[in-house]
Specification:
Immunoglobulin-like; Ubiquitin-like (UB roll); 57 strands; 24-stranded antiparallel β-barrel; mainly beta; seven-stranded mixed beta sheet; 4 helices
């Protein structure tokens, strides 16, 4: 392909100057809009040495490669490099070349794509392919405007792109981890202990496939008369998955958890195929489970399901709210809050889904087959096959159904979903199970479920989910059946389940309320209950503005043990952005009163120190958290007089290895999608993406983690923090990634000294006005002015650059091995050795 010059926004001022100069020139416009310039009116010493061909047609853009922002119907899509070639039928004109890769970004329907024709040896889209398609480049805004009739485009919504724009990313090796370490030193002869808990995901990305392995490890050391060491390392799960964009579905092979809207989940090895709600526009997706609780000290919160850690973090004393769990998680979650004194509070949270409604004519489905496995990843039970669906049979009605079948266990479910319009949404389903047990014959039972959701706009409140389920004594879920087969003991399972989640805002008084309630009864064991209430209010009292008061209360009854906790806090903001607070934290063990001070050291680091007292004596604690480029970490310390001292450390991060570079980075969503960004090998460039900004490493690479799959993610260079010797020609990127993908995007960055030079050819003349200077990266770093005067950026000692003009002329300049150390060096004479080079075919 021909070598082409590159235009950059950095040199707009010089382009504008040239344009103003040309505007003063007497011109004649022919019938074909060809403009002829009278250069006699120019106040230039060398009037004959001007290359004005590029300005002789209205809207003309000189052939070359341009860094443009692609805008489709005025909606910004992506920053691209777009070549301009001489016109196929009019060599004196130029046309933008939309390659097949760029055409994918247009989001055309499949029918529209069949009508496309191409030019330039099949590399460029023919603008006449679709009636009404218009392409217009604009150097002033560095944009390529594409106007397309809506009938040719797939459905889009804000920050969501159609499948044609989804990116499977590049091949990569991932190693993500989360580590929590704690050490406790007890007084009065008590045992000392230390522990290190970790979990993570290792994986490989190849094309659209994601190969993953989940792991977790435990190490515990205790001193004293019963001191012991315990350690284990477990691979929880080996699996592979990929997106099937045409079906808006996800295929999983290997070890998995049955994620069903109808049947209880269990572990298995096999295959599953399910329609993926995350591939739908955001306004059509479901919700993710939420967990609230109260920590009495610097505690470790662990969320598990069937022995696998889904989420683990360290929290400061007081209420916490976990809202970043995946919306793919279903079923019952076990939550454990481990305090620094070793005490553990446990409860369960049900993550039942919102009513299973589907738009008219659409079908959502889930299919799976394989063999059940236990928590040790050993096969047990019989091979099974299951399928479920929700079919939108009309506007407001959905039919729900599914079956789960093996040799000795079968379950069938049927139901409906109903959009009640102003009254919310409702679903109802009945599941019938038939199980054949050795020694007990055949058991048959039913389970009934009702779900409801409603947002009350007039009251600014929402019932996020309300549900009731009743199961007969003879009803068995697949998990109950497998447990009975394994142990030989009949498990009568769940009887009734109530769950409700409510949000309410009282805007007139600035009060917000969150309420969650779970009640689970069983046929053969004690009930489980979990209540959670959170109230918060902002207020002004005299000169004190934005003071906040909050109340949190929890009650859990789990395995016969009742845990009550409550937390009240007052927070007073200070003028420097810090906060002073008071809190009272009470539980079944004790009541602690604290005063605290919270502040930020910078945009990445915050800390809190507190002191207080309880019935055991005085207490002091500290907590600090830092969002680093390589990892996220936090540390905490707690001391209670005559009781114990404790220290904790938590870190999470990842290592992403690709052919484009290797980066250590922070991450929260282990194994999730991320974007590897390249700053043209320039280090220490600040990039704003998701959350706290990151800086490129010594190799000019950085990773933006925790990006949302199937969502238009954007990142940009912080231009306010660029050093004086660095310019960003392309400062904004965006990507819509499939699940688990590693996207790759590059910024166009120029680093080096700025120079005002005079370029002289070997015959003593100068390159014509408007000639372009490009570096070895094909970046445009200067435009030649009158008598060879040229402002050049990104200069390095001994560097070679090209000067190009016309259709086949160029020369090379070589910078001195030593440059003066100042912001802009001027009056540098640069000889330019002429070469003949084909610029455009």
């Amino acid at each position: 392909m021909s070598s082409l010059p590159i235009y950059t926004p950095k040199l707009k001022w010089l382009s504008i100057l040239i344009g103003l100069t040309i505007s003063c020139v007497t011109l004649t416009i022919n019938a074909d809009n060809h403009i002829e310039f009278n250069t006699d009116v120019l106040d230039l010493e060398d009037k004959n040495n001007i290359d004005l061909n590029q300005f002789s047609r209205a809207g003309y853009i000189m052939p070359g490669v341009y860094n443009f922002t692609l805008k489709i119907n005025n909606e910004q899509i992506s920053d691209i490099s777009i070549p301009y070639y001489s016109g196929e039928y009019d060599p004196d004109n130029s046309q933008p070349c939309l390659s097949p890769e760029i055409v994918k970004l247009l989001g055309l329907t499949s029918e529209s794509q069949k009508k496309l024709t191409w030019w330039h040896e099949g590399q460029c889209l023919n603008e006449n392919s679709l009636p009404g398609l218009l392409l217009r480049g604009d150097l002033a805004t560095s944009s390529l405007y594409v106007s397309i009739p809506q009938a040719y485009l797939e459905y889009t919504s804000e920050n969501w792109d159609p499948p044609s724009r989804w990116d499977n990313g590049i091949s990569a090796l991932l190693i993500d981890y989360n580590v929590n370490a704690n050490a406790t030193n007890s007084y009065n002869g008590g045992a000392n202990s230390s522990s290190v808990n970790s979990n993570g995901v290792a994986g490989i990305n190849l094309g659209a496939w994601r190969f993953r392995a989940d792991w977790q490890s435990r190490y515990n050391h205790t001193t004293g008369s019963q001191g012991r060491d315990q350690s284990d390392f477990t691979w929880n799960r080996f699996y592979a998955y990929r997106a099937l964009s045409e079906l808006k579905a996800k295929l999983v092979l290997g070890e998995d958890y049955l994620a069903s809207n109808i049947f209880d989940g269990f572990r298995f090895i096999g295959a599953s195929l399910q329609s993926e709600l995350s591939m739908m526009p955001p306004n059509l997706r479901g919700y993710a489970p939420e967990i609230t609780g109260i920590a009495q000290s610097n505690a470790t919160v662990t969320v598990m399901q069937q022995g696998r850690i889904l989420y683990e973090t360290q929290v400061a004393p007081g209420p916490f709210r976990i809202q970043n769990l995946s919306d793919a998680i279903t079923g019952t979650l076990n939550v454990a809050i481990k305090e620094q004194d070793g005490s553990i509070q446990e409860f369960q949270v049900d993550t039942a889904n919102l009513p299973y409604l589907t738009r008219p004519g659409q079908v959502q489905y889930k299919l799976a087959l394989g063999q059940p496995t236990n928590t040790e990843r050993q096969s047990e039970g019989e091979n099974f096959i299951t399928g479920e669906f929700s079919w939108g049979i009309s506007n407001g009605w959905s039919l729900i159904g599914g079956s789960l079948n093996s040799q000795n266990y079968n379950a069938l479910s049927m139901g409906f979903g109903r959009d009640l319009l102003a009254f919310g949404a409702l679903s109802f389903d009945v599941t019938q199970s038939i199980a054949r047990l050795s020694g007990e014959g055949t058991l048959s039972g039913s389970s009934y479920r009702v779900n409801y959701s409603k947002r009350f706009e007039e009251f600014d409140s929402q019932i996020q989910f309300a549900g009731y389920r009743f199961s007969e004594r003879s009803y068995m879920s697949m998990s109950d059946f497998l447990n009975t087969q394994r142990t030989g003991l009949r498990n009568y399972g769940s009887k009734e389940l109530y769950t409700i989640s409510v949000n309410k805002n009282f805007q007139d008084i600035g009060l917000s309320l969150y309420l969650n309630y779970n009640h689970q009864t069983y046929w053969d064991k004690k009930d489980n209950d979990y209540y959670s209430l959170m109230l918060s209010k902002y207020m002004d009292i005299g000169p004190i503005k934005n003071m906040s008061i909050s109340l949190s209360a929890n009650r859990s009854f789990y395995n016969g043990v009742t845990d009550d906790s409550a937390y009240v806090s007052l927070s007073f903001p200070l003028s420097n952005g810090a906060n002073v607070g008071y809190s009272m934290n009470t539980s079944r063990y004790d009541t602690t009163n604290r005063v605290s001070y919270y502040d930020r050291l910078d945009d990445r680091t915050n800390y809190q120190v507190s002191a207080g007292a309880n019935r055991k004596g005085g207490t002091a604690s500290a907590f600090i958290s830092h969002q680093g480029d390589n990892a996220r970490w936090s540390a905490n310390a707690n001391h209670i007089n005559n009781q114990y001292s404790a220290f904790g450390l938590s870190t999470s991060g990842g290592l992403t290895l690709t052919g484009k570079g290797t980066v250590a980075h922070r991450i929260n969503n282990l194994g999730g999608a991320r974007i590897l960004v390249d700053t043209d090998d320039v280090p220490n460039i600040t990039i704003r993406g998701i959350g706290v900004p990151v800086e490129s490493n010594r190799f000019g690479k950085a990773v933006i983690s925790d990006v949302s799959s199937y969502y238009r993610n954007k990142a940009q260079i912080d231009l306010n923090k660029l050093p004086d010797d660095i310019d960003a020609q392309q400062s904004v990127i965006q990507a819509t990634l499939t699940e688990g993908a590693v996207g790759y995007r590059s910024f166009s960055v120029i680093s080096g000294q700025k120079i005002m030079a005079v370029i002289v050819l070997t015959d003593g003349t100068h390159p014509p006005l408007g000639a372009q200077v490009t570096n070895h990266k094909k970046q445009n770093v200067g435009i030649v002015g009158d008598l060879g005067n040229t402002y050049i950026s990104g200069v390095h000692p001994s560097e070679i650059m090209n000067v190009t003009w016309g259709k086949n002329m160029s020369c090379e300049i070589i910078f001195p091995s030593e440059l003066m150390n100042r912001e802009i060096q001027d009056n540098l004479l640069l000889p330019c050795n002429e070469v003949v080079k084909a610029i455009v075919k």
